Amino acid sequence: MGGAGGAGGWLAGNGGAGGNGGAAMTVGGTGGAGGAGGNAGLLFGSGGAGGSGGHGYAGDNAVNPQYNQTSQLPAGGTSKGFGHHGGSGQDGADSTATGVGGGNGGPGGDGPVSGDVFGGLGGNGGHGGPNAAGGDGGQGGIGGTRTGDGSGGGGGNGGAGGIGGPGGNGGVGGAGLTGDAGVAQGGDGGDGGLGGVGARGGNGGAGGEGHQYAVTPSGTGGKGGAGGDGGVGAAGGDGGHGGAGGAGGRGGLLFGTGGAGGHGGSGGDGGLGAQGGAGGDGGAGGKGDGAAGLGYGGDAGNGGAGGAGGDGGDGGDGGVGGAGGVFGHAGSHGIGGDGGSGAAGGAGGNAGAVGTGFTNGSTGSDGGLGATGTDGHSGDSG
């Protein structure tokens, strides 16, 4: 970890800043914590800022049994190893002054080319010090690219802090050889971090895209991460927006069915306060990608629900449903979030887009009404 900052003079003077934490030097390791800032003088001066947390080390991308855990061998004897997880960032150190943000999570390792391997999870972002942003969640690793069983790794969660850190994006599903039975899903996006006092929550990460297969059903898209809730304060923080769902893998050249789109993440709730924060918007649903040949397109994902407003805050909008593929159905739209007391309800999601191709998919369902706030107005219809 970083060294502590020097203290200010006995009566007056500013404390020194704490040193930054070192980056992790081993696979899957965590960054060092930042050093605490020095104290202010007795009468005058401000405390020094804490040092930032170190970054998590990236997951291992190599085919190396030391870093890839193995489980039971499936039929055929192929090793089902896992890419190593990325390391979490550490918290930024607290001090009497504004702290410094937490370190970012390391990205998950990619699956190797020659195995049924899943991408590693991204590391979580570290928590920020006072009023400082949380670290970003790490990106999920890409799935293995040989037999197509490698799903993308999930994104890391954003760290809490002044402003919540954003969630990491999910990894993309691994590729499969022609004719392989593939189930490679896109990884789920990480959730946004919670906002500190009166601060905004972090946005959720996007879901990863599913992979296409020639004959068998393609992989589904990953779910979007939820937005973080806004922090409580005199004026509540706004909720973070939900992440978008990943697109389903395209239908195959022959008869393969397109994968379903991932659902959008829900928006975070607005923070409470004399003036409440607005709820975050729901994430858009992923599209069910169309088939290139005679197969069916996948169904689209649903939009995420909008977050509820704090006292007097507006509810978030529902997410847009994805468009369906050939013969596939369009996704439903998310419901609008409820308005806080004394405010209008959130607007409902719009009607879903129709699918395209030989026949249209069904229309997505209408968004619901936002709740009526006390002394307020009813929400808009979808």
Automatic annotation (TrEMBL):
Bias (Polar residues): 63-73
TM segment ranges: none
Composition skew (Gly residues), residue ranges: 78-90, 99-162, 183-210, 338-355, 364-373
Residue segments, region Disordered: 1-31, 60-162, 183-227, 338-382
Name of the protein this chain belongs to: PE-PGRS family protein
Taxonomic classification: Bacteria, Bacillati, Actinomycetota, Actinomycetes, Mycobacteriales
